[in-house]
Amino acid sequence: MRKSQSSENFSNKIVLNKGKENFIEIEEIVRYSETDQMGVAHNKNYFEWFEIGRTEYCRQKNIPYKNIEAQGYYLVVVEAYCKYKKPLRYDEKFIIRIFLEKITPKKVVFAYELVTKEDKELIASGYTVHIVTNSKAQTRSLPPHIIDGLKAS
Amino acid sequence: MRKSQSSENFSNKIVLNKGKENFIEIEEIVRYSETDQMGVAHNKNYFEWFEIGRTEYCRQKNIPYKNIEAQGYYLVVVEAYCKYKKPLRYDEKFIIRIFLEKITPKKVVFAYELVTKEDKELIASGYTVHIVTNSKAQTRSLPPHIIDGLKAS
Amino acid sequence: MRKSQSSENFSNKIVLNKGKENFIEIEEIVRYSETDQMGVAHNKNYFEWFEIGRTEYCRQKNIPYKNIEAQGYYLVVVEAYCKYKKPLRYDEKFIIRIFLEKITPKKVVFAYELVTKEDKELIASGYTVHIVTNSKAQTRSLPPHIIDGLKAS
Amino acid sequence: MRKSQSSENFSNKIVLNKGKENFIEIEEIVRYSETDQMGVAHNKNYFEWFEIGRTEYCRQKNIPYKNIEAQGYYLVVVEAYCKYKKPLRYDEKFIIRIFLEKITPKKVVFAYELVTKEDKELIASGYTVHIVTNSKAQTRSLPPHIIDGLKAS
Q: What is the pTM assigned to this prediction?
């Protein structure tokens, strides 16, 4: 077996500053198919919930992600991170909070918190980093109307 | 909308030291259902591949994860991270490398690299952090025979 | 290669009689991760939507499926069928209609229709057949209060 | 709530004739993420396994499905059915048998059996019906070289 070619380290020191006013909240519910044999929602589903969250963030800013893609801009995921604090069970309702953490023409960072519906206890938190490409995966820059629209309160 | 209650930041500075000899490799292939409308494997699947990887790591060390759970030890995912470098397409074969990055009685860290089958180009890399619990989600300590078995070359 | 041992044929002649009053409707939306490289929702997701549908059917009859399982009754899927008429695209809203097609102490059949939100055009239809078991997969009979509750208009 | 507009019934009387010599077998294993809280593989995964199966069927006939799509032919799923006989558990290896049940220029039917690795006991069986379209979802006819290739023993 060969030696690992990568000497990369994960000093992914993204320091999020989520204590801002500008975020949106949506409610979701755990599907039966999202549980695993441990009886809780499987870890991969959180990344699907993050994605649902940013879709709704864009929609609520009146720039549906569908339209962003239709204009030829793709927000390709280049990093994804989740920290799991409390398990989620079948049929449990929870809140997803979505924060636009950073937006430049070339890069967008969304942060997320999942909290319980009643007491707003933290279930999980995380972020996704996106670069902007065209449909052929070549990097390009987001136009101001999209940047400004997504930043608007 | 309320202010975020969390002031948490993600200074998840895990510095991986993957240049070690002790890792295993398995081959996987992209399923049609794992692609999305961008024509590439969806980001959540990588976390499923990481999981397949650590299952195989444990098996190759003669401690199938199934048996670890049967003995009452659960390696619960508390953090998961992935960095995406190159897209994967339908029916593409690739290699998953799994590294046991750290193991203590209370905590296990696996690191992963996905590389192309031919040129061993990096497709993605990441890690998962696990705590050890019993079937009731209470923390407990891994016994030496499991720790030693998983560390064995 | 060996000859197929099964001479089974699929004369699954379930003739559904869905023209009844007693059904419920819920709205769903296609997630990005549910699309595939053909640009439409992947065929397996329909079975997940059917499941979400029957969960909501039970809830609206005041017998959440979670409670049915908590009482020791499992509605195990023994058959699943879907007929696909019209594709669904990312971010498209649609309606799931759920019909309790048949219920006896030992067997439950749900039927489903997916229709477009605006014109109620048929997108897909199907059914699932369930047997009743305990938590050890042994068959048992549903009690009258669950049968009557699920049948109630 | 409105009356169901569909008077459709599911007399899907496909009588399969799987006792033929011409089928292929592949081995698969249940992923942790494919289990649900009942502790067994979730019903939707079987349709993913069927798909992996037909991908491998095409490959073994030297007509990778990827190439079929590259030539502008899409085998769109219009029906899918599965009958579940025995549960599958995490890390269990099993065999998928794939049968080309029927092929005409406009329509292809695959049948499937999942059997245990050791005793070849039936786990599940099912079929998928496909129509042939171009990339714009318009029906078209498969050329003879694809039909003959897929039929070849």
A: 0.90
